[in-house]
Design a protein that fits this description.
Elements (H helix, E strand, L loop, with lengths): L1 E4 L1 H9 L6 H8 L4 E5 H12 L9 H11 L3 E3 L3 H6 L10 H13 L3 E3 L11 E3 L2
Parallel strand pairs: 1-2, 1-4, 2-3, 4-5
């Protein structure tokens, strides 16, 4: 199974694993699954870090790649088709990073692991992390 992690859930995976529901943990721990983190999440993390809304033990340009490699997380690049699909989404969710992750889920056909209830307003498969 291929799954896409919402930014918030990836950060929980790294810092507060117990917050994740058993189902989400099983998917993340199953080595036959391919877990993706969107490049949009790296962008979101970098912005939040730079404005002081996210504390990390080291700068994002070191923190993110190290954790992706350590946990065998695949990067999901942002393609033009992903960015352009955002224009077709109903405006239920105002967060531009989440809207891009939702568009990637639609284009790629990957379920999203999230805690964000706004995601359920879109026609995507969701795996609730909490």
């Amino acid at each position: 199974m291929k799954v896409l992690l919402d930014t918030h859930c990836w950060l929980w995976w790294l810092t507060d694993y117990e917050k994740l529901k058993e189902e989400a943990r099983e998917i993340l721990e199953n080595g036959s699954n391919i877990v993706f983190l969107s490049v949009a999440s790296s962008w979101e993390i970098a912005i939040k870090y730079s404005i002081g809304k996210l504390d990390l033990p080291e700068p994002p340009e070191r923190f993110v790649p190290k954790r992706l490699m350590r946990d065998a997380i695949s990067s999901l690049p942002v393609q033009h088709i992903h960015a352009l699909r955002v224009a077709e989404l109903p405006y239920h969710h105002r967060d531009p990073f989440d809207r891009l992750i939702i568009a990637q889920s639609i284009v790629e056909g990957f379920p999203v692991i999230t805690v964000d209830r706004q995601f359920e307003l879109y026609d995507i498969e969701i795996i609730w992390a909490r």
